[in-house]
Records
---
Amino acid sequence: MDYIEAVADMVAQSKKVVVFTGAGFSTESGVPDFRSPGGVWDRFDPSELNLPNFLRREDVREKYWRMHKMMWETIREAKPNAGHYAVAELHAMGKLDCIITQNTDGLHQKAGVPEDKVLEIHGTMQWVDCLDCGKRYPRAHAHDKMVAGEKIPRCDSCHGLLKPATVAFGQAMPERETRESEIRSSGCDLFLAAGSSLVVYPAAQMPVLAKRGGAKLVILNLTETPHDYYADIVIAAKTGEAMSRIVAKAKEKQPS
C-alpha cells in the first residue's frame, strides 16, 4: 500500500483535520528536541529544573535561564520547514480545524497559520511572564537583560521573578488550551500526529480522544509510539517531506 497516497485520500475526504505536532516536527528547522542524544536533557537535568525548585532556589533559576537563553538563541533564528508550510497549506485549503502543538517555537505561526488556529499546550518561548504581578514581556526583552549582565531577569514593574511562558516540570498545563485541545480532538474527523513520541500526558491523550470520537488516526514519526497499534496508518519518516507529499497529493484530489 502507498501510505502517503492513502493519507492524502483521508485528507481530501476530511472536513475537520487536527494536526498534532511534537519536537520531531521542528528538528528539521534546526530546533533540537529534549530527549534524543545531544538534546537539551543531555546538558541539563530535567529532574532539577522544575517549578518548585525554580521558585525557591537561586542556583536553579540561574540554570533555568541559562538553558532558555541557549534555546532562545536557536529558536529566534529558526525558519519554518517544509512540514510547517504543508500544514499552513492545509489551512489555506480549508481543511485545518486546528494545530495542537507540544512545541514552543512559534514556527507554525511563522509559516502563516493564524494564531487562533494554534493551541500551544506546553506554552510559548515568545513571551516571559512575571510570576508576581502577571505582567507579560516579549521574550527578546528578557534576552536583552541577560546580554546586559542579568543572570536572572526581573520584572521592570515589581522586580518579581520572570519566567519564560513555557510549561515547566511541576507546573500546571494551560487550562484553556488543554480543554480546547480535548474538545477539538474529540470532534475532528482526521487526527494527524506528527513528530511526537506520544508519551507525555495529558498531551498524549489527544489521539485517544480522537479515536473515541470516530476520527481516523494517522501517526507520522521516525520511531514507534505507544499509540501505533490502534492507528489507522503509521508512517515512519521525516515529517517535512512526508507532510509535503501528503498535502500536495491531497490538493490534486480536491474538486476544482
---
Amino acid sequence: MAEPLRAELDAAHRAREVALAACRRTVRACGRAIRAVHRLEPGTARELVADAHAALGEAQDALRPHPHVAFAGFLHDAEKEYAEALLTVALVAGDPLPDHQEIGVGLAAWLNGLAEAASELRRHLLDRLRAGELDRGEHLLVAMEDVYDLLVTIDYPDALTGGLRRASDALRAVLERSRADVTTTVLQARLQRAIESTQQA
C-alpha cells in the first residue's frame, strides 16, 4: 500500500521542483521586462515577456496533474508578475489590454497584476515629465486613472480577488501623488511660458 502513495508523492514533488524553477525564471524575466520598458526598449521588453510566457507555461503544465500543489501560492505569484509585465508593456504602448483568459492566468492574478502595472506607470510618468513631455505624462496619468476606476468596481471578498483591495488602495496613493506631480509640472510650465512671454513683450 505504501508504494503507490510514495509514487504519487514523488510525482508531486518532482512537479513542484520543476514548477518552482520555472516560476523563478518567470519572475526574473518579468522584472527585466519592466526595467526595459522604463529604459524605452520596447522590443527587449516584449522579448522578455515572451520568455516569461514560456517559463510560466512550463510551470502550469508541470502542475496541471497536481492541483493541490498548484494552489500553494507560488504559481499565482508568477502569474501575477507575468500579468504585471505584459500589462505594463501594453499600457505604456497604448495597446488594448488582454484579459486573463487571453494571457492564460487566473483572474485574481490578472487583477492584481493590473493594479501593479498601473503603479509602475508612475516611474514612467515621472521620467516623461523630467524629459519635458507633459502631454505624454498627462496621457499616462489618464491610463492610471482608468485602471483605478475599473478596479474599485471589483467589490468581492479577498478570497476571490487575492487581496485586490490592498493593491487598489496602494494604487490610489500612487495615483494621488502622480496627479499632484503632473499638476505641479503643468503649472510650472505655464508660469515659465508666461514669464518668457512677458520678457519678449
---
Amino acid sequence: MFTGIVEELGEVVQLVRREGAWRLGVGAQRVLEGTEVGSSLAVNGVCLTVVERAEARLAFDVGPETLKATALADLVAGALVNLERPVRLGAPLGGHLVLGHVDGIGRVARATPERDTVRLRIEVTEPGLERYLIHKGSVAVDGVSLTVAGLEAGAFEVMVIPHTLKVTTLGRRVAGDRVNLEMDVIGKYLFRFLQLGEAADAPAVAQFPARGDA
C-alpha cells in the first residue's frame, strides 16, 4: 500500500529486454533505506518486487502483463522514474490510498503552464475508466497523488503545483506522453458494490413478534 507521495526520483541505469520479463535497474538513494530483496516499491505507480539491491541501485523484473498494461514499456536508459516505499502502519497518509495496481494508461493531451503551476489534460485511453473519477476526487498519475480539477467524457485535468513539478516526473511530461493511471480504490469498490446489487441481496431484518404474541 502506498500514498502517492513520491520520495525520490530514480534514474533507469539498466534495461535488459529479455523474452518474457525485462530486467529494470534503477539508481536510487533515499528509498534504499529499509528496502531489501523481496521488498515492494512503487515505480511510476507500479508495484514491483526488488530482485537485486546494490549500494546505489535496485533491480526489478517486469513481466509481460505489466509491460502490456502499464507505461513502463516506454522507459529507456536515463529516464527518470517516481519511487515510493510502502507506507508503514501509523505513518501519516499524505496523499490517498494507492495500491500500485495500474488500472489503465492515459495519454497527456496537453500541458498548459498557469503562472507557477501546470494544468495537465490527460486522455483516458481505456473506455469507461473515467467512471471511477469524480470532480475534486483523487487519482494517481504515474504514482503521484493528485486531485481531479476537471472531468469530461474520455479525459480529465489535474493542476500540478511547483513542488510536485520539481520532485516528480510530471514536470517533464509533454503532449503525447503515456502515463500510468490508478483510480481511487474506494470509488472502485463502491462502484462494484452498487453494480452487483449487494444491497438487494442483504439478509432480511429479523421480524420480532408483536407485543402480546409471544
